[in-house]
Amino acid sequence: MLLAGQDLLLAIVVIAAGAVVQGVSGVGGGFIMVPFIAMIDMRLLPGAFIFSTLSLSSTMAWRERSSIDFANTLPMFITMLPGALLGAWLLTRVAPDHLGLIFGAMILLAVVITATGVHLPLNRLSSAMAGLIAGTMAASSAIGAPVVAVLYQRESGPRIRATLAYIYTVSSVLIVVALALSGRFAWQDAQAGLLLVPGFMLGYIFSRPLAMYFDHGATRYIVLGVSATAALFLITSSL
Prior knowledge:
Blueprint: H1 5-25, H2 30-40, H3 47-63, H4 74-92, H5 99-116, H6 124-141, H7 145-152, H8 157-181, H9 187-210, H10 216-238
Helix pairs in contact: 1-2, 1-9, 2-5, 2-10, 3-8, 3-9, 4-6, 4-8, 5-7, 5-10, 6-7, 7-8
């Protein structure tokens, strides 16, 4: 078992905070969760963490399933599995003591993508490219959502929420499969992931009433700043 006692409680608190941030600011909760989970126990990334996110993404996708954009997601899923296999392979080439470098660098890249507000046209080609990159990033660092989110940032609220939740659900399954094939996901990772699920549920519940009290724009950049700082800490501590 990867988690027990104080570490388990701390991990649940971190995940709950990240899920609240997701609901309040619209920025991926992974920005908060991943660097701090890495500080608690690096072995939780990416397998156990990605497995645990299925609890939230599948619930949200089912709730708003009528708004899902199925047309542009198929090319993304086709390229996502090769990308995930590449990301999983990259993990096998990095010494455990240097994994913080991978996680930190990918988090910084995701922060830059989100902060710059890059806009890409939504079509089958861009969807396929996003799937390849997101799969590689997610399997190697547990953060791949920003690459996909830039494609849908100008869509309607229900379409964004439903489609991204659907993409996160399917991509999480593909990434877990890729990690298992490369020997980076085992039964103990699934057990640890199940222990993290209460954090997602608590964060989701509390984010809804809190959202009205925060300025989304200001919160967004505070989150990105905290995430970048944590990522830099991971990088320097791995050198």
